[in-house]
Amino acid sequence: MATLSSPPWPDPNPNPTPNSNPDQSQTLDFDSLMPPHPQFLSHSAAASSPEPSPTPPPSLLHLSFNQDHACFAAAVENGFRVYLCDPFRELFRREFDGGGVGHAEMLFRSNIIALVGGGSQPQYPPNKVMIWDDHISRCIGELSFRAAVRAVRLRNDRIVVVVEQKIFVYNFMDLKLLHQIETIPNPKGLCSVSQLSDSLILACPGLHKGQIRVEHYSQKKSKFISAHDSKVACIALTLDGQLIATASTKGTLIRIFDTNHGTLLQEVRRGANVAEIYSLAFSSTAQWLAVSSDKGTVHVFSLKVNSSIPEHEKSQSSSNSGAAAISPSNPTRSFIKFKGVLPKYFNSEWSVAQFRLREGSHYTVAFGQQNNTVIILGMDGSFYRCQFDPGQGGQMTQLEYHNILMAEPEAAQPSVNR
């Protein structure tokens, strides 16, 4: 194991008690580890412009936003690519002689990316997490497991790895195992972590159907929330981890809970018919929640549960969603004044804004860097940047559309043949 001369990240848990476990092992080479927050992703020296390739673009295997939603990574059949969201452009790509990457998780805007092999010819075993340093175009560490890796979540100080029925939490500085959690079977790899440096909050499925487990590491406590009667299908934490949004396999209602006490704070309705929820995303201020599903519509809901929202935004949100408000773009609001008279279906809180997409394709959503903008990534290669009107609501305005697989990088980058 390599010796680390100067720690790249502060360790908020300086005296961990690692658990030894035969389910996992790790190796590490941090000699060339970059600082956690460089100005931006570094690029290798530009090569001469590549000749146009007659071959079709590789298949997409996975898409994931980085922690501040400013960038996203695409895992493909022959490597991975990194993109900037606003303005949209491909920053760089790495190709592995046809070796596939099933997951690519960025660490903010640094050179560190966690890779998991995937596709018909995986570049790495699907039961390993490879820590890739793009500054030197090679892996500097790896974590091995007995089961296939379902998801990876990164913070400056932690690596969280999800397998079918376990979650492992590692110290990023030395890859020491700090904690492991048993879960109900979790084939989607559901897991969310907070991103503020002063505390770590992790949310995942519990051991029972419909249950959410929340780990408050700074308080050394676990909170169990009975969120749904059906299995949990999707979860998302706010940046500070104080709120969690959950959806079940039924997909009609989304619930927002306080993670500290497990209190249900708000419930919003996506629709009346069963749907598969693909992603949930809070805005940075937790004023808005975006939801995507297999019905082909992205919804944006107004939230009234975060006391840290500036007062002028609160008053605007309140005036836009008053109990007696009737909006032509959202006629369901006219039923709110009849609470207690009409069935619960009509009493539900409906979305403020919507954007319609092709039904059946898998879409992931996040809020953009500009106010009232939403980024939508599709597994069909689509990239949308849309804007919603918080006052009028209704259909969002499309600002940008791109096919991410047809984009060209800023400067031609050499492939990595390893």
Provide the descriptors you would attach to this structure in a database record:
single chain; 418 residues; mainly beta; five-stranded antiparallel sheet; five-stranded mixed sheet; 2 helices; globular
Oligomer: single chain
Number of helices: 2
| Percent strand | 35-45%
Helix content: under 10%
Widest beta sheet: strand line-up:
1-9-8-7-6
Mean pLDDT, as a whole number? 82
Structural class: mainly beta
Instruction: Kindly state the number of beta strands.
Output: 30
What is the CA-based Rg, rounded?
A: 22 Å
Query: What composes the largest sheet?
Result: 5 strands, antiparallel
Residue stretches low in confidence (pLDDT < 50, at least 5 long) are 1-20, 29-47, 307-347, 414-418
Distance between the termini: 22 Å
Indicate the overall shape: globular
Q: Topology, please?
A:
Layout: E1 24-28, E2 60-65, E3 71-76, E4 79-84, E5 89-95, E6 101-106, E7 112-117, E8 128-133, E9 138-145, E10 151-154, E11 158-162, E12 166-171, E13 177-182, E14 192-193, E15 201-205, E16 211-216, E17 221-226, E18 232-237, E19 243-248, E20 253-258, E21 264-269, E22 277-282, E23 288-293, E24 297-302, H1 311-320, H2 344-347, E25 353-356, E26 363-367, E27 373-378, E28 382-387, E29 394-395, E30 397-403
Parallel strand pairs: 25-29
Antiparallel strand pairs: 1-9, 2-3, 3-4, 4-5, 6-7, 7-8, 8-9, 10-11, 11-12, 12-13, 14-15, 15-16, 16-17, 18-19, 19-20, 20-21, 22-23, 23-24, 24-25, 26-27, 27-28, 28-30
